[in-house]
Amino acid sequence: NMDELYERARAAKTKLGSRLFILGHHYQKDEVIQFADATGDSLQLAQVAAQQSADYLVFCGVHFMAETADILSTEKQAVVLPDMRAGCSMADMADIDQTERAWSELQRVFGETIIPLTYVNSTAAIKAFVGRYGGATVTSSNAEKMVRWALTQKERLLFLPDQHLGRNTTVKLGIKLEEMAIWDPIRNQLELNCPADDVKVILWKGHCSVHMNFLPKHIENLRMKEPDRRILVHPECTYEVVHASDDAGSTKYIIDTIAASTPGSKWAIGTEMNLVNRLIKDYPDRDIVSLNPYMCPCLTMNRIDLPHLTWVLESLVEGRVPNQITVDTKRTKEAKMALEKML
Ligand code: CIZ
Ligand code: SF4
């Protein structure tokens, strides 16, 4: 019964007091978000985690975000993920063995001319790899800035693990689609669209299965029916979708854009369902719909729910720390180098 769970979670939270801090990602369900001490996108939550002194950081988001919180928090703080099955399929598309293999092949083709960048949506092992080779992490809010920086360091960059954010960002900086090569981690193979010497960017062939649900045909349909509805999407959508939209930007950018829009304005948004629904609820005087008429949830994010949150809070009250996320010391050190360049 949700009312009872609500009361139990509230009571446990009160008992834990300042020893507890709950972080909630914008894609989380309302039943979880109502308990969050801070809400944000992955960048904002990483910054919050780095500043908190509470003993327990309960992270309502996915595994890589909890890892990042552990990397940026002190050793005595415990980061807890309410459900261990809350992973990110995009982060899982770049495993460290595949990446090491790709790196040696890319070194063979391009020599020492590559700097690695990874989207924060990646495992701690990948962040450590990137830190070890002088690269940095990026988020969708600062990807442009970070790519510009990377290209002052080396001639070309390897962008992990989201090909779409990589393509959408670098195309904006004037890099041509032909100058982007693709690394296919399944085939363990480089796909070139121009001579190797002219390659500027190597995109890892990963994607977000949630944002892949927004398609050019959704935009065509809307444009036909409602030409005055503005289309705003996340850059994890494909290049074709971003290109055909009116605007694209990070989670924070989407929220800020709607907040700054005029009452009565009409929007179609291409991002995760819980966020779109929250915008619809928070801005009843705007006309907001999902770009894909079938709302697109991130199923793994949604594994964090009130029953799991209640269970971890009550466990903490009883002195047990379930589902603790820990990144080992060596990885923490290397991953921190990559994160700090960005932060
Ligand atoms: O798709 C995600 O996981 C996003 C957009 C995370 C974030 O907050 O940047
Ligand atoms: Fe990963 Fe996509 Fe879910 Fe974000 S929305 S956590 S990128 S699967």
TrEMBL record:
Pathway(s) this gene product operates in, as recorded in its UniProt entry: Cofactor biosynthesis; NAD(+) biosynthesis; quinolinate from iminoaspartate: step 1/1
Keywords noted in UniProt: 4Fe-4S, Cytoplasm, Iron, Iron-sulfur, Metal-binding, Pyridine nucleotide biosynthesis, Transferase
GO CC annotation: cytosol
Catalytic activity: iminosuccinate + dihydroxyacetone phosphate = quinolinate + phosphate + 2 H2O + H(+)
Keyword 4Fe-4S: yes
Gene name of the record: nadA
Cofactor(s) needed for function: [4Fe-4S] cluster
Gene Ontology MF: a single term: 4 iron, 4 sulfur cluster binding
Binding site for [4Fe-4S] cluster: C88, C208, C298
Coiled-coil blocks: none
Cross-referenced PANTHER family: QUINOLINATE SYNTHASE, CHLOROPLASTIC (PTHR30573:SF0), QUINOLINATE SYNTHETASE A (PTHR30573)
Pfam families attached to this UniProt entry: NadA (PF02445)
Organism, scientific name: Lederbergia lenta
Alphabetized NCBIfam families for the sequence: nadA, PRK09375.2-1, PRK09375.2-4
Protein name as it appears in the record: Quinolinate synthase
Function: Catalyzes the condensation of iminoaspartate with dihydroxyacetone phosphate to form quinolinate.
Note on cofactor: Binds 1 [4Fe-4S] cluster per subunit.
Family, per entry: Belongs to the quinolinate synthase family. Type 3 subfamily.
GO biological process assignments: 'de novo' NAD+ biosynthetic process from L-aspartate
Superkingdom assignment: Bacteria
SUPFAM superfamilies: NadA-like
E.C. number(s) listed in UniProt: 2.5.1.72
Annotated iminosuccinate binding sites: H25, S42, Y119, V120, N121, S140, H234, P235, E236, T251
Compartment(s) where it occurs, according to its Swiss-Prot or TrEMBL record: Cytoplasm
